[in-house]
Amino acid sequence: MLDLLxxxxxxxxxxxxxxxxxxxxxxxxxxxxxxxxxxGGFAAADAAGGGGRGRAGAARFCRVEWARMMxxxxxxxxxxxxxxxxxMASGPSGAxxxxxxLLAGCGGLDGRRPGGNCGFRPTSDASGFARTAAxxxxxxxxxxxxxxxxxxxxxxxxxxxxxxxxxxxxxxxELLLLAGQLGRTMSHxxxxxxxxxxxxxAGRAPSPAHVAPxxxxxxxxxxxxxxxxxxxxxxxxxxxxxxSPRLAHLLADEGPRAPRVGADVLEGLLTEPVGARSGGVMxxxxxxxxxxxGKLRHCGRAVCGKNAYCLDCLRQHAEAVxxxxxxxxxxxxxxxxxxxxxxxxxSSLVGEQALTKYRENARALLTYRCPACDxxxxxxxxxxxxxxxxxxxxxxxxxRLGEAWRRFFLGEAAAEDFLQAVLEEHSCGxxxxxxxxxxLGKVFGTSGSALWxxxxxxxxxxxxxxxxxxxxxxxxxxxxxxxFRCKVSSWHRGITCQERxxxxxxxxxQLCPGCGVPTQRSEGCRKMTCVxxxxxxxxxxxxxxxxxxxxxxxDEEDVVQAQTAVNLVSxxxxxxxxxxxxxxxxxxxARADVNQAVGPAAEGQAPLLVAVQSRHPAAVAALxxxxxxxxxxxxxxxxxxxxxxxxxxxxxxxxxQIQGDPNMKLPLWAWVQAGSAAAVEALLRNAAHDEVVGxxxxxxxxxxxxxxxxxxxxxxxxxxxxxxxRFQELSVSAATRGLLLELRQSLDEEREVDxxxxxxxxxxxxxxxAREEAVEDDDEAEGAYGLTPLNLLAMNARATAESxxxxxxxxxxxxxxxxxxxxxxxxxLLTALQHxxxxxxxxLCRGPSRFVPEILDELKTLSEPSRRHxxxxxxxxxxxxxxxxxxxxWVWVQEGTAPAVEALLQRKEQVDEDALVALQRCRGGEESxxxxxxxxxxxxxxxxxxxxxAAAATKxxxxxxxxxxxxxxxxxxxxxxxxxxxGADTNAQExxxxxxxxxxxxxxxTALQLLVTNTHATRESMLAAVSALVEAKxxxxxxxxxxxxxxxxxxxCVPGVExxxxxxxxxxxxxxxxxKNVSGTQARQQLEDVLHPLIDRDKTVRCPLWFWVxxxxxPAVEALLRNAAHDExxxxDALVALQRCRGSDEAKQQITERLCEHVGxxxxxxxxxxxxxxxLLLELRxxxxxxxxxxxxxxxDALAHGAN
Length: 1204
Known about the structure:
The protein is 50% helix and 3% strand. The protein is built from 57 helices and 14 strands. A two-stranded parallel ribbon has the order 1-2. The protein has a two-stranded antiparallel ribbon with strand order 3-4. It has a two-stranded antiparallel ribbon with strand order 5-6. InterPro entries: Ankyrin_rpt, Ankyrin_rpt-contain_sf, E3_UB_ligase_RBR, TRIAD_supradom.
């Protein structure tokens, strides 16, 4: 009916192939008119607000324009307000919509010609029924249907321009008579006031917005047939009944309401078979046996007909679905119509084992492994809550969300669609990727766990959609960064998930279309079943090698779609200004599009937006100099920049672009930040300005570049506009946001903290104990779980000691709580210790910081002696000050306190490898150390002592190599030699000692892998350490995924490759594949110089064609191309190698001729372009990842070869 009224069914509507809507004039046009005005046509203002303009001012619309305008109005107002406005609407001819339906539309209502005092007799055909329904809906929208007839007539005369004719027409009399008859005959469908009795025989139907209380455990959730009848769609009108059953719903005081978001929807529950006699029997459509009616169920949908099934068949069906779900949580569907059933309908029937598997599968789909504590857990919470986070929203918003929830609950819409609806209602529909919006913390809780959804399967689907859309999460246990989409322990800033997954895809893997996880195919058919439950087909020709891609350029096209070259340059904030300008200039001259948005429209990012996100003023200037467009997304990103110098420089570059764009509409905060008091006053005075003054405006006021007088004027106008109380509240919120934003960005950008900003925000009464994720909430952040300012400052180990100490001191003076424990991290002191922030630990220890047991756990993981001793000295008073806790054995061993060790051993204290690690680090004298060793050996026995000593040495060895890699420092060869002498296992993997028995920890690095990937180790240390490990029987060719040589080449660690080459390391195909992906000319040639002698000595190595092309070996290339048994195609790899060829110009020319002759000139040119594009993107990607200037020679050469 609403589509009819709003003109959305003009082409295939129920009034004919093309019939103008009742809201429009008969002269409505099918094509856009040449201009506005003229005769006919329904005015836009008339349609929207019911006002009347003269005929000369009326605007005519084509069907598409009218549909778009009406749909926008309906979405903005909601159904009820839309109908109220439609009831008062009138056209340019002075006739109201209601009048047109009752008077001018007689020919459409009962088949008569217009004119005369026609009777209003609705027919059973679609046209008459539609107009009758429309007229009844409009009368009901006036609020006078059912009241005294005289009151209604007076109201119509007063409000409608043709009210006199409408109120006195016989058509209105007949319509009111019909309404009265329908109201009496179908009164049982009208909700009754509480406490009134229902008429005899009438079933009391529950509201479809809520579900009845949960059934007992031994019976599935069932909806009574009466409730089903009232909540489902009514049947079409039967001949002779005048459509009364369908129209009766229009007369109810309250129409069918949308279900409460999160609650079970009645249409998804089961009902007993309708129409069966009580106490009778029916046949189950599955087992074909007769059962009592009470033990049969029907899904209630019309498509199922009269088919019903017994509870036992339903149980077996549900258990089969659950057991066949592997690691998935599939929706159980009706065995007849295959539509989704609510979890509550079958969960009470299946066995406890099946339910447990269902819950465990849900947990498995959201499993993560914390990079800090190595614990495996899940983001999923099995228990739901009844709190409704949408109760505070407007009714029309709840109605829209309720409809979106109904469609999602019944399986008619995807979880992504429902999530998009929720985000749009909270003004976050544009957000996609990165961290989740903080303002939705109260709705979705931590990590998207929508506990207000009672249905387990639906709640999991929403949470998976949330995690896929906002993959940047933090582990609940330690607050460590975790990318859920990539399943890696970082947020890989500067590289999108799609790009990273494309890198994985290049390693003989394809991405699951359901969850995006890289998947390898080892054997079997092409049908793939992912752990997320998605079944998909493996792409590629069966004749090709299993699990691989054909190198025909398809990979290059995928990489291009991941990021463009201009985007990659814009991301590289570490590149110099000159190299960025030259690279952008070269790309522009090669016809690169500076405004191309990468990815789908919903999440595409243009280069300028990427440059601003990367805080790269040089790239912003270069792009704006070549016509980059400033979009609202760019302005939103500028708003988030905390550092004054970077923000103002970027604003200066963007200002001419904004001023030159007449279509750019700046928000209020932009004018405030620019210091334009006149523009701010004009916007606030403009009644049509509907922008809400929020925290953004106050943040901009604190940063405003205007003079003191302008800032004072703007502050006065804003305060006058919103009131003093609200102004003060927003000012505090803005200061808090500014404080957290500065501390967060200084941490992410690895720079010093701007203490001036910290002091200014605290002076403006910023909350020093606020949580990061709760900044945008106006209310108390009951679900706050983010980091506090002290936590953020404690994490910033890259800042200077002066700025960290000063920041901690200022926060503590502002009453920051030094002992607040957050869900994402521990106390600030523990956080500082975890991030090895000596300055923060020192300042916090001088304050009121308390001891927590996790501090000791973190202390024992420190490897470097000087820094460990420094932390022990700082934390000693805090640890000793807590007399309520007994210190573990290893603390006394490391301190060298023999009497305490002896006392604890007498109390049967357990001795583990931590105690032996502490003994090897003992700070006591030789006498104390010898005594403690004797006590431990006596307590354990010689054999157990030797075992624990070797395990402790292994742990120390791996801790030292891991810490050196993470801290980007040289390795301490003294610790390596000492641990080897104490019996360390040089082939142990990092996770072996943690006791994982589920295979999760089987991917840990060995000591050699950790060592040869450390690009910050000196050549001398590398050679000495590798020799020591090899002498201790470390396997240089240990292969548990990647060999040490593969790892070294992956990290471009030339000293590591050189050290391995001295100890009979083998060059494998994986090594050559990694070498192929090295773009930096200097690093690649150094690696080649080390690897070539190894390849020459090992006659078993079969080098691919591209390798000989890159070497410049003409005889080898000719031999491979002539060899009929050579099954390797000339692909883009060979052309990349040709462009990198290290041979002479003559050799390069000969190889070019041979390749061109082999594949043909046309194919050669195509592969040349593909290869050049790969080189270009590979170089720009590698330069960004290694934080270096791009090799401009490679860029120019690739573009010269036709790179896209």
